[in-house]
């Protein structure tokens, strides 16, 4: 009986020592866990930021997409109202892209779109916003520009793109584009700016193709 009691007492002492040792290393374990949680949180934040970035990028070209362009158009209309100044919106449509797809294949059509995206990026400033709106349509937000300079920019962009050779697996293609534009100033609304730019773009297209503009 006494032997059992001695064993029991010894076990209690050993257990107490183990608990003490565990208590001594517990802060280190807690720090390790805390560091791991911090790293995991940073990883998740980076992943969320990357997903948010991808949600604003066009699926074919490296340009922004329609969603981002519309967000920026809203913001630029607010800037014009709040701080004054004028900005511009160009709206472009690739003429006869369906014929390119039907004749040379969709890969050739994609080459056309990517070539236009690269040319527009090269012809604009870092403060401008270039986006593919979907299909064969593009838009460019031009920072701090007058009505006169906006009209000149529309013509220079048209000249640039119509002179652009597009390489394909077959022949080198030449393209044409229709361009519309609208000035953004105090009181401008994003939806109205987009409608006006689209309207002038189709007016340009009708001047070339008549009622067969689409």
From TrEMBL:
InterPro entries: Diguanylate_Cyclase, GGDEF_dom, Nucleotide_cyclase, Rev_trsase/Diguanyl_cyclase. Residues 85-214 form the GGDEF domain. CDD domains: GGDEF. One of its GO terms (molecular function) is diguanylate cyclase activity. It comes from the Bacteria. SUPFAM superfamilies: Nucleotide cyclase. Signal peptide: none annotated. Its EC number is 2.7.7.65. It catalyses: 2 GTP = 3',3'-c-di-GMP + 2 diphosphate. This is diguanylate cyclase. It comes from Sphingorhabdus pulchriflava.
């Amino acid at each position: 009986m006494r032997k059992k009691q001695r064993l029991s007492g010894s076990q209690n002492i050993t257990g107490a020592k183990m608990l003490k040792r565990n208590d001594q290393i517990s802060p280190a374990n807690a720090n390790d866990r805390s560091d791991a949680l911090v790293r995991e949180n940073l990883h998740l934040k980076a992943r969320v930021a990357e997903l948010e970035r991808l949600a604003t990028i066009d699926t074919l070209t490296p340009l922004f997409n329609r969603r981002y362009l519309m967000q920026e158009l809203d913001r630029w209309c607010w800037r014009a109202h709040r701080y004054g100044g004028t900005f511009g919106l160009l709206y472009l449509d690739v003429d006869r892209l369906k014929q390119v797809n039907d004749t040379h294949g969709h890969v050739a059509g994609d080459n056309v779109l990517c070539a236009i995206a690269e040319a527009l990026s090269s012809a604009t400033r870092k403060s401008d916003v270039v986006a593919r709106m979907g299909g064969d349509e593009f838009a460019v937000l031009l920072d701090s520009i007058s009505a006169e300079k906006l009209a000149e920019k529309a013509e220079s962009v048209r000249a640039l793109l119509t002179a652009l050779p597009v390489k394909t697996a077959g022949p080198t293609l030449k393209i044409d584009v229709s361009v519309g534009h609208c000035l953004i100033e105090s009181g401008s609304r994003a939806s109205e700016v987009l409608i006006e730019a689209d309207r002038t773009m189709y007016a340009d297209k009708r001047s070339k193709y008549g009622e067969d503009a689409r």
